[in-house]
Amino acid sequence: MSGFDLSGLTASFGGERVLGPLSLTVNPGDQIALVGKSGAGKSTLIRLIHEQVGRKSSLVPQELGLVNALPVFHNVFMGQLDKHPTWYNTLTLVRPFAEDRTEVKALLKALGMDEKLWIPTASLSGGQRQRVAIARAIYRNAGLLLADEPVSALDGPLAHLVMSLLTERFDTSLIALHDVDLALKYSNRIIGIQDGQVALDESSHRLSPADIMGLY
Ligand SMILES: Nc1ncnc2c1ncn2[C@@H]1O[C@H](COP(=O)(O)OP(=O)(O)OP(=O)(O)O)[C@@H](O)[C@H]1O
């Protein structure tokens, strides 16, 4: 599974509607950049979609959800926790299997931080922590990526490296991005959210930065 077809998506806080009702069809091969100004409803939409598709997706949430006391390895390994029996996960906590160590290390190398494999995530920088959450999502290897501002803490070259890695590893994705240039470069479809509704849904190659800036 990689696409989805959802309708009746709504969210309210304190009795006030902040999103929807809206419908969204994502086809296999759609690499979507979700854009819109702060507070438009992007995170809320990603959360609602994740609630529906759940385990079938790899998620990079804005609040990264790392376990600070555990090393980078174990935080990345968590991406596959539900794919192994309990005994395997318990043993991994004490002494990770060589095959998993090799796989996670290679992934971290691609993200430029394999030397941090055994460092507790508490002692990493914001950008390093963000890359751990990205590694966890890639390691999960689901057919659909849902990511909420996954490169917000990364500098320009690293942001490009991570975006191209995500594009390569996930055929189907929905990624909230506040950087319009990254959104255009690393997507084939742009969805713009304005006041909790879909205000733009278009192939990326038909859009210019100015078209997207109209949402802000
Ligand atoms: N837990 C919450 N309690 C109350 N209101 C909330 C809550 N979460 C989100 N909202 C409101 O819902 C609306 C949409 O928020 P959301 O976080 O989805 O926006 P966003 O487009 O992701 O913004 P940003 O780009 O700043 O992350 C905002 O008006 C926000 O204040």
From TrEMBL:
GO terms for cellular component: plasma membrane. SUPFAM superfamilies: P-loop containing nucleoside triphosphate hydrolases. It comes from the Bacteria. GO terms for molecular function: ATP binding; ATP hydrolysis activity. Residues 4-215 form the ABC transporter domain. The keyword Coiled coil does not apply. Keywords: ATP-binding, Cell inner membrane, Cell membrane, Membrane, Nucleotide-binding, Translocase, Transport. It is found in: Cell inner membrane. Pfam families: ABC_tran. PANTHER family: AMINO ACID IMPORT ATP-BINDING PROTEIN (PTHR43166), PHOSPHONATES IMPORT ATP-BINDING PROTEIN PHNC (PTHR43166:SF6). This is ATP-binding cassette domain-containing protein.
